[in-house]
Amino acid sequence: MPVTARRTSLSRAVNAESSTDRPTGRTIARHRKSSKSSRSGAPRAAAAVLSVGLAVGGGAALSLSTTPATASAATMTAAQQRGHTSIPSRPLLRLGDSGPTVKYVQKALHLGPDGYFGTSTVRVLKKFQTSWGLKATGYTDKKTWGRLTWAAKHKVLYGNHGASSASAGVGTFRAKVLKEAAKLKGTPYRYGGTSTSGFDCSGYTGYVYKYAGHKLPRTAREQYAATKHISRSAAKPGDLVFFSNGGGGVYHVGIYAGGNMLWHSSRPGRPVAKAQIWTSSVAFGRI
């Protein structure tokens, strides 16, 4: 076959194939039509670009919805999340935590509240736990939270669990008072009693104070009159606690032990013991 003929037939074949495969008219329109995904995505992207452009150019920028709170919480570390946990949930706070809940703990411990659970917070918290007979862990477990919230409410910091914690939390004289008071645990009640064979309430407090180094008058009323009257929030373990009736008269006296507790000789059949203060009708006195 001649070369010219072969070139002519090859050209016709190529032209024919091109004419059948190339879209024309409405086919072109359908081919250029946007897909569903592009209709939902491209305009939004364009709107975001337009918003930035308008804002830079001084026009009215479009508002875009954001969730800054979620983003902020997501960026918190575990230590920060614990420090922002609500107080009623009693979170387990530890060394390195930070946030407003840590500040609450620091205020209850009479520390400068910087919101960071550092070594000083751990040290004072251990001292607090020891004074209340709790395990000195240095972190806020459930039992510590219970005592901590009570102490914050009543403005009492240290309790009196054992002689060592008493010495750390109160003055030397009051520490002696608490030591002598504990020695007499189990001594029977005896009306009018002022010795180790039996005590009434004021006989017991008078005996304890005498051996701690200070003499008190005989009766509860006289002891109340001989002391400096202080508020409940100012009272410390080793001070005297007086019980009054509706008319204001004093009918009972004991030795404040901290944490709403007292040492006392209460009534027949009840020996000297450490017990909870059962009423709000009390007053405190200090020598």
From TrEMBL:
A molecular function (GO) term: hydrolase activity
InterPro entries: NLP_P60_dom (IPR000064), Papain-like_cys_pep_sf (IPR038765), Peptidase_C40 (IPR051202), Peptidoglycan-bd-like (IPR002477), PGBD-like_sf (IPR036365), PGBDSf (IPR036366)
Cited Gene3D superfamilies: endopeptidase domain like (from Nostoc punctiforme), PGBD-like superfamily/PGBD
Annotated transmembrane regions: none
NlpC/P60 domain boundaries: 171-287
Biased composition (Polar residues): 1-18
Protein name, UniProt field: Cell wall-associated NlpC family hydrolase
Organism: Kribbella aluminosa
